[in-house]
Amino acid sequence: MTEPFFQVDGLNTWFFTRQGMVKSVRDISFDLTRGEVLGIVGESGSGKSVTGMSIMGQIDEPGRIVSGSITLNGEELTTLDFEEMRRYRGRRIAMIFQNPLMTLNPLMRVRDQMYEAIGAHEDGSRRKMHDRCIEALKAVGIPSPEERFNAYPHEMSGGMRQRVVIAIALLLGPDLIIADEPTTALDVTIQAQIIYQIRRQIDERGLGMIWITHDLSTLSELADRIMVMYAGAMMEIGTTQEIIGSARHPYTRKLLDSVPSRNTPGEKLKQIPGNMPSLLALGKGCPFASRCERATEICGEPVPATQLSGTHRIWCYHPFED
Amino acid sequence: MLSFVLQRLLQSVIVVFVLSIVLFVGVWLIGNPADILISSEASEADRLAAIAALGLDKPLWHQYLVFLGNAAQGDWGASFVYKEPVVSILLQRLPASLELGLVAFLIAVGISIPAGLYAGLKPESLLGRGIMAFSLIGVSIPTFWQGMLLIVAFGIALPILPVGDRGQLATHFGITSSLWTLDGWSHVVMPAFSLALLKMSLLMRVTRAATMEISCLDFVKFAYAKGVKSRKVIVGHILRNALVPLVTVTGIELGNLLAYGVITETVFSWPGLGKLLINSIKVLDRPLIVAQLTYTALLFIAINFIVDILHTVIDPRVKSVMRRRTA
Predict the structure, then answer these.
(1) What is the ipTM score, two decimals?
(2) What is the 3-state secondary structure of A22-59?
(3) Does residue A287 share a domain with residue A201?
(4) Does A42 touch chain B (CB under 8 A)?
């Protein structure tokens, strides 16, 4: 097992709104080794995207990282200011967004958006940049890259645009890529192609990836490890085998049950009754307790982590026994 | 592109033609100039002679056709009151209005776009809120009222700026204007600010709204995620996209500034077209009214034309829609 190159430890990101403090991310800790994909799964509002944006140092007012540490190759990122962090963004850590139709500036040619990405970190002639960009477009399987290179975003399909975005993310050879639901807006056949391309890039280049999604079924194909989040907190983390095959947390079980392909045909889809609690009024206990069939009085107390194996950890007083 | 230009030109001709009919009928409906222009003490014979001399004895359709025939040859008729060709009257007054309108436009755009951008980027900041408060006051105070307040403040109480008229003129490059002299600028700056205030406030709000909307779009976040510097993200991504709605609004405002300075020109006794229009309506000087309103229409058509061209330059999506339509 190689040493992790990226670590998040005790991360807390809160938003100080007029209605009160929204604790979007609470005590999140995980690490990542090279060539590994960590999937972060959760419902909308679970804090998975805020976790990604915290790593990018792109939390907007009135939010801020309250405590915790984020280290990349041993360097602490949370103490950097916006300009110092800017040097990492795009160069060491890259990000891919959910909707490829919205990720590229509609008024700029692909060419200029790629040049801009390189120009933010390096000086160099256009000629040199041009060759690199074409290489990057080829690497993600874009046919006739020279033509796409000079096109405007609206002249391409969603799948093609997402490939361009991935090419831009890979341009400067980052150590870490954060992908926030990058295939959700694409249709299924394109999804599979994109996932294949990304997995290949990760294996070839040995980079780490955080794949944020609400869709457990894509994760099962792609991720090495999965982290389950609920209402800003970690519920369970383990290898894909451990989470998909033998989840122990009641929330993870419910999440798995609600995946359509796991149900028998004709059977009604299983839902999780109730709603996520308001992030403004969280108690100190397990946030899932109000929707959990196994909850008892003790679930109102702070939940300690239970180490089930070297890789498998859960936060629950009443886990399933295998 | 060429077919687009030709298409628009043809459209413009049709618009002007239809407008001239509406104008002619409208002006005819307002009242009979003979009642105002001819003294009530004149004899019946003199009255009829005067009406015939003005061409008012003919039926309306006939008058219109005569007007149309002359206008096509460049003769827009003579003013009933001044007995001078209306075109030369307009050309006398036009520079003053253009000066005032253009200076007001520069003030409005020069202040509102940076201010609106700032307020949109930092809506919670003290300055951002201050800008919004200012724009709210700007859209709420009637133009004539703030004009008078400005005169009281800077013309009388603190007499640092002259009030009334254009000041000293000078001619350079064949253009006679008060903007060549310092005295001219001291005359134009206060009325121009007064005229600009409402447009400035409106543009500020439009800029702020567009900035706020675009700032939270993914491509802005992606630009930051690429490591692009803040200044470049703001200018190259946010402002550039905000220009799409701004160009439209700014174009209309420019037309308004150049054509409808009536109130400001009256308050500041500015010798421009606005005052002329009001006066000609008062005395039912038909040729002058028609000529001025046609000028206004042509102005708006020209501005809209430029706005459309600018859109195709700024937004590549517009170009491809057009290509599909004209192909």
Answers:
(1) 0.90
(2) EEEEEEEEEEECCCCEEEEECCCCCCHHHHHHHHHCCC
(3) yes
(4) no
B129 CB-near residues (< 8 Å, 6+ apart): B119, B123
Are B226 and A82 an interchain contact pair (Cβ–Cβ within 8 Å)?
A: no
Same domain, A129 and A269: no
**Residue A71 and residue A215 in one domain:** yes
State whether residue A117 sits within 8 Å of chain B by CB: yes
The residues, ordered by sequence, that sit 6+ positions from B105 with a Cβ below 8 Å of its Cβ are B196, B199, B253, B254, B257, B258
Cis peptide bond upstream of A62, omega within 30:
yes
- A189 vs B29: CA distance, rounded Å: 68
Q: Name the token pair of B221.
A: 């976040």
Nearest CA among A229, A215, A239, A307 for reference residue A36: A239
Task: Give the count of domains, chain A.
Answer: 2
By residue range, what is the domain housing residue A39? 6-92+176-314
Of B124, B228, B240, the CB nearest to A116: B228
For residue range B83-94, list pLDDT tens digits in order: 788 888 888 888
- Which residues of chain A are modeled with pLDDT < 70? 1, 261-263
pTM confidence score: 0.83
Asked if B231 reaches chain A (Cβ–Cβ under 8 Å), the answer is: no
> Which domain-ending residue is among A153, A173, A193?
A173
Residues A197 and A126 in one domain: no
